[in-house]
Design goal:
The protein is low in regular secondary structure. The longest helix is centred in the first third of the chain and has 12 residues.
């Protein structure tokens, strides 16, 4: 639970930032039982997953549980409380985690391919080597560790149909994304301020109107990527691979980027 408590402190400190901008958690106390306690055990969860009927874990409090290696494929975890829980090497392909809380949770090596992560709060989570290929990832990954994670074909672009709820988009502010794979990902209007993207693969990714202020793209592959109207102020664009002469021709604040 120490990881969860650290993550909760982080969210409290950033409350006026990404999480509140996406409308999550209004009226919730970060130290409430809903955010810090579990109502089930690992054995309870495993029994539900192994039952004849599809498991429904929506809104369940699973904070701090060790759920490593379990198979949550296609399971409904909508609005569940997963803060500080361990999903190491778990299978969550096609699972629904919309509006779930996973602050400080550990998804190292987890398979979230094709999962629905609309407004999921992964602030401070560890997701190194996780697979999020094809996921609907309009989630908050602020300060999360996603080293070597794969977002191939994932959709992190802003949902322009829900403007009354705020700008719903992928938030990767200050996230660790070294060596992550975003090939073909939809990332228009995504927030990547101060993200660590060293050696990341952004081939054919759509980053139009994305915010990349202060992001570090040293050694990143950008072949075929779109940066139309992307804000590059103070971004590090050093030793890029696959860059064409016009790769950043329509980007914003390119004169303020660091290129050497």
């Amino acid at each position: 639970m120490k990881a969860a408590l650290r993550a909760l402190a982080l969210v409290a400190a950033l409350w006026s930032g990404a999480a509140s901008a996406q409308g999550a958690g209004d009226g919730l106390r970060m130290d409430s039982p809903a955010m810090t306690e579990a109502e089930m055990t690992r054995d309870d969860v495993a029994a539900m997953l192994g039952g004849a009927a599809p498991a429904d874990l929506s809104r369940r409090r699973l904070n701090g549980l060790d759920l490593s290696g379990l198979d949550f494929s296609g399971v409904n975890l909508r609005a569940a409380y997963l803060n500080g829980a361990r999903f190491t090497d778990a299978r969550l392909t096609g699972a629904v985690l919309d509006q779930a809380w996973a602050l400080g949770a550990d998804f190292t090596g987890a398979d979230l391919g094709g999962a629905s992560l609309f407004q999921t709060q992964f602030d401070g989570a560890t997701m190194d080597g996780a697979n999020l290929d094809g996921a609907q990832a309009k989630a908050d990954f602020t300060a999360a560790s996603l080293i070597g994670a794969s977002f191939r074909g994932a959709d992190m672009s802003a949902d322009m149909r829900n403007q009354s709820m705020g700008l719903m988009r992928g938030v990767l502010r200050s996230a660790k994304l070294r060596g992550a794979d975003f090939t073909g990902a939809k990332m228009s209007r995504a927030d990547l301020e101060f993200a660590k993207l060293q050696g990341a693969d952004l081939s054919n990714a759509d980053l139009a109107m994305a915010t990349l202020g202060g992001a570090d793209l040293t050694g990143a592959t950008v072949a075929g990527a779109s940066f139309i109207d992307a804000d590059m102020a103070s971004a590090r664009l050093i030793d890029l691979k696959g860059a064409a002469p016009d790769s950043f021709a329509r980007a914003k604040n390119l004169d303020r980027a660091l290129t050497r």
